[in-house]
Structure prediction request, 715 residues.
Amino acid sequence: MSRVVMHLLTSVVVFLSGLFLMSAHAGVMTHETMVQAFPAPLVVGEKDRDLPVWPIFRQELTSTTIAAYAFESQDFAAIPGFSGTPFNLLIALDPNGQFMDVRVLSHHEPVFLEGLGERPLFAFVEQYKDLSLTQSIKIGTGQSKSGKENGANVYIDGVSKATASVRILNQSLLAASLKVARAKLGYSEGRDPDLIAKIRPDVFKPLDWYGLQKAGLIQRATFKNSDVEKAFKDSAGEGVDVEADQQPNALFADVYVAHLSVPTVGKNLLSPEKWAYLQQRLDPGDQALLVLARGRYPLMGEDFVRGTVPDRISLTQQNLPIEIRDLDLDLDLDASLNLPSELMDAQWLAVRVIAPAGLDPAQPLSYALHVTRSKGMVYPELVTRHFSLATQLPHDYLELADADQKTWHSIWLDRWLELMVLLCALAVLVWALREPSWLVHHPHRLVWFRRGYLLFTVCFIGWYAQGQLSIVNLTAVVQAVAAGRGVGFFMYDPMTVLLWTFVAVTFFVWGRGTFCGWLCPFGALQELISSVTRGLGFQWRRVPQRWDDRLKKLKYLVLVVLLVCAAVSVTWTDRLVEVEPFKTSITLNFVRAWPFVVWAVAMVLLSAFVYKGYCRYLCPLGAGMGVLGKLRRWDWIARRSECGQPCQRCHADCAYQAIDKQGKVDYDECFQCLDCVVIFESDALCVPRILDQRAHHDVIPIHAVANAVSDKEPR
Ligand code: SF4
Ligand code: SF4
Prediction:
């Protein structure tokens, strides 16, 4: 026993000494550090008073121009990574929305912290330089597509084994940059430009005005005087419009709107010259809209200046305003617009929506006509009412956006096959555990089924699909909650979500054992290695009960230390979670700095001497599973009155020492190996059953048999 404890202690010392050699640091930018990051000829201006953004100027011979806006991503989009703590990126965005610079200031992603190392992370962010916020930036799946442009898309290389982490980084970078672009570069609050539909330039149908209306390409709203009067009821604007009072049914405004950039609209309404002229006036991705109105309410107020934002008409999408600006097109209604005769007296306005505004033509749009009335002469009271016109462009004219490649939805779609395999495997496990008679009546069948399943757990769930649940999942929740953030970041890792969901359900039925006994890759690895070493003649030692009871408590202490640490120190949590050898053994296949490899190998080999010693005595995740397993509603392991008194067979045979001398099962320590269930069901192994069988032939005192098996060596 003392050799085992020495082995454990030596491993801990070697591991910790290595760990302290490795450290991470984080930083928050000050003016001084900004100056270091952007040296001359760049000049760092004063931090904006309203937004945490530094203007970066470029000094030229005679002038100083704005070169970029620099900011930290966590000030704008604190999207937690897998440790529950966000990436912090230093981003410099030039006035055209191009990334002048992107650097990682800090992160706590387990896979990059002493795992793959930070180099792949730094190489990943390097790729953003010179790309534009208006481009559709897609993360490749490993094949080098860097710099390749495919239509509107530009591909950057992902990082193998860190797919979800780099997507979270990408999401943080774009969300933060869009916020700054909206505030500083005049981008509207529209959608992410990467995720909007595009107008199909190849679709054209010859239609007249009425055909366009019928096709849903021109939409109309008519407002009578009485409608407007009703809207001003009970306000200072009520009764102010004498004409409206006198002719309530007369037309106030007849409004038509159309998406002029859609070829079927633009080419049918505009002359070929004007259509060509419109194309010239629009930048790539810009969209043109046409608004026409007739009636007594002019579409433009008296003070309206051509080329500016209209004062009487506005646009919103998904409740966010989209800026529209008069295109100042020189249209002559007779010659340039093919309108029906009744609209020849209409007023029209062609407006532009710039590409970065993120107007999505596939989503509903809402136009609003603003009507302002004033009452009083000296200090007139102004009252404004809005009259809406909701529109929706038919999808036939659009190329819908690709699936959202930046958020978690796409990861779930990408990994559907792995998820299906996992679902099938979980279904098999549920079936095996619900109907164990097929296994437990044939011990060899159980042995081979178990080995096969554990092999699947290590190879598929662990090494291939990277689905090792970890204490980092729990510390991440604590860190996210402590910082007031959500835990949505888990959705970037579908295997983890699916496994946790399944395991959460099994807590109520079987307790901790289902995960620790069947679904933990590191646990499975230990068990398989134990089988091999046992085949080679190594026999593990049964830990004396007194020591076993004490050591089992150790893992709860480790759990508490980690959870408390998670609430107070991110840096220390990053270090201490390394007590868990999962990242080294499962995520990185033992390719890592030597202290970590020594630790992981030691924990695996420990199992050759103390059966699954890491699981039983040290594993903080196992401790957490034990605590959550208390939700179990049933004692699913059948017991007899003879169990423990006097029979000691199961107590002696449970390799996890989870059955006490009284025959009671400690479910917090049970790994659901089913060995005791095999014994219980067997006429050849269960002592009371053996005695029942022999009762008619031999007279054997039960205590003699029981004492005999209680003295036997562990299997
Ligand atoms: S105790 Fe830890 S390592 Fe062992 S099976 Fe459970 S979670 Fe995995
Ligand atoms: S022998 Fe029984 S009590 Fe012990 S771990 Fe296996 S199933 Fe649990």
Q: What stands out?
A: The radius of gyration is 35 Å. Residues 52 and 75 are 7 Å apart (CA to CA).
